[in-house]
Fold this protein.
Amino acid sequence: MSDCRMMKAIRVSEFGAASVLKLCTDVAVPKPGHKQVLIRVYACGVNPVETYIRTGTFRPKTPVLPYTPGTDAAGVVEAVGEGVTAFKKGDRVFTTDTETGGYAEFTVSAEDCVHELPDALDFDQGAALGIPYFTAYRALFHKGYGKPGETVLIHGASGGVGVVACQLARALGFRVLGTAGTSQGMELVLNSGAHLAFNHREKDYTDKIMKATEGRGVNMILEMLSNVNLNQDLQMLVCGGRVLVVGCRGSIEIDPSDTMSSESSIIGLCLYFMQADEKKECAAQLYAGIEAGWLRPVVGCRYPLDMAAKAHEDIINCPGAVGKMVLTM
């Protein structure tokens, strides 16, 4: 592989608004190191967390400038580094993390973050797998300790994480309630496996949720916008209930006594702390779901690479998500 190979990539040279995402055409194609895989990217997922990282205020991960965003890429293996045994050139793959960023024509990922992309899924669907599915599984089981028969409320269930969370929870025996902000989103939530869907833009939607549970409340809530919803989430939990904080865009004031009255828990979630054995467990369930037919990523808006800034604006400001947003190369 020549040292002079160049590629297109989004680069961030300063933290700030979406406008700091710049398309560059003269970025050197990275080389895979020990136990690393070089992937020719065909699609890359866009996640809300990438907008937080871009501002420089996301404490779990502040990248060194300049950097290329993006974690859940899908494409074809271009080359492998020393020590890689699981993949070879030409393999169709998707990632759950990258070393050099997925908003690019090529990316390098550690071997243990690369997974085979089943033939049943295209590259756009592959880009909708990594972060959403692993987040949903970690929330339900690794951090939420969910059990079949429990009732789970997925707040923001029409987005990338929400859709696969509905599919996963329904297939594995939960009673699934989901919220969305549009009628189209609510239809997607129901089609993704939720028993009931609610419009979280209606003032009395929490009353409707409580009525649907006959006043008992829910065991677990997957919360995509905790800075808005956390207070009312705590009012909807059964004794011993859990709120899993998947997304947050600011601060909120809560009354800690709300957790005391039901011995409930607020649990933060960050995929960066996922261990190797947890990744293997999650991947095994993912493949089983695809093979059985109940796991099908839903792709929403598609943007070309040069519209990454627009994608970042839309993922935060859109009135209601409908599937996973992806960049295409």
